Amino acid sequence: MAILMAFDLPLADNYLQILRQQLPLLDLRAPAEFSRGAFTGSVNLPLMTDDERAAVGTCYKQQGQQAAITLGHQLVQGEVKASRVEAWRSFALRQPDGLLYCARGGLRSQIAQQWLADAGVIYPRVKGGFKALRQAAISVITEAASQPVLLLAGPTGSGKTRLLRQLQAVDLEALANHRGSAFGRKLAAQPSQIRFENDLASSLLHVQADHPPYLLLEDESLLIGQRNIPHSLFQTMQRSPLLLLDEPLQDRIEVILQDYIIDLLDEAISLNAEQGFAQFSSMLQQAMARIRKRLGGALYSELNTLLCQALTSQQRSGEISLHRQWIMRLLTDYYDPMYQYQLNKRDLPVLMQGNASELSQWWQQQLTAS
């Protein structure tokens, strides 16, 4: 079989399609590069380890490009090379619609693509590499910020996230892996800021493919946990009209109970049967402590006592009803007044107000009309 040269091998520059479909990506960058940010669907199978890359970089600075290339081939040869090529080959055969890339679409991805071709697998590489895809993602977010945006707002526990999942919307909290409040931390870590933005771009492209009249988002603060909404999009959100979701207090209490007590404990125990309850309890108590100053000493003391009593009852008998007491007080004495104050302060136009069924029906009418 004739050996193909790098200029004969396929290049891909259909960045928006790659992002929208979240195509499988073979990421050849070193682990440290990958950890700073990647794309959903990417798997890190590096050409060089962090130490190897550092050595090649030092050589490049001191002796020039050719010496660095020679060192790179010396470090990645024999069994080391064979094992890495086989890992790439296995990925390519499992993901025939995928692509490979390095940081800028340069030497690393060209070498890997050639070695794969030598092994009998022709696999496309992303033109411009991670940097080009990243720039495309940023452009998608910037463009979205120039389009009409509609925010779904409502008091804590009203089920905004549940409603968003039923509609043609972008779920910022899901992308950030955080529920957006002091109690919103999840057991799994949040993605890096770069990963959050990359996934946001993919979600925007997916939602906008059907050309809805508005980009529908949940009304959020700038920070969702430790991830921040890109500036251009957040600025647009600050002046966008609202859908207001109204649900009875008792229903909201049950939503909080399900999401923050039942589901969180189930997840904790599934990850660690022995320590799951202790981790679950610690997360709730830490969340309460994070808003201690805003609650004030007396209210914090009362709520924390109720929380501890509920946790003790739950641990002893599995009974969760006591959680409703502190949840109700937290909503009525803290979250609801804060929500109403912020809503009045912003004074944004409200296009529709109602329960989940009414808002869903209204939204479907807008989609039909568009």
Biggest sheet character: 4 strands, parallel
SSE class: alpha/beta
- Which percent range describes the beta-strand content? 5-15%
Mean pLDDT: 94
Uncertain residue ranges: none
- Biggest β-sheet: strands ordered side by side in the sheet: 7-6-10-11
Helix content: 55-70%
The CATH topology of the largest domain is: Oxidized Rhodanese, domain 1
* CATH top level class name of the largest domain: Alpha Beta
- The termini sit apart by 55 Å
Number of domains: 3
What is the N-to-C order of secondary-structure elements (H for helix, E for strand)?
EHEHEHHHEHEHEHHHEEEHEHHHHHEH
What overall geometry do the principal axes of the alpha carbons give? Answer: globular
Tell how many strands the DSSP assignment holds.
11
Write the layout of secondary structure elements.
Elements: E1 11-12, H1 15-21, E2 25-27, H2 31-36, E3 42-44, H3 50-63, H4 65-75, H5 78-94, E4 99-101, H6 107-118, E5 125-126, H7 129-145, E6 149-153, H8 160-166, H9 172-176, H10 193-208, E7 215-218, E8 223-224, E9 227-228, H11 231-237, E10 242-245, H12 249-271, H13 276-290, H14 292-295, H15 297-317, H16 323-346, E11 350-354, H17 356-369
Parallel strand pairs: 1-5, 2-3, 2-4, 6-7, 6-10, 10-11
Antiparallel strand pairs: 8-9
Helix pairs in contact: 1-7, 1-10, 3-4, 7-10, 7-11, 12-13, 12-16, 13-15, 15-16
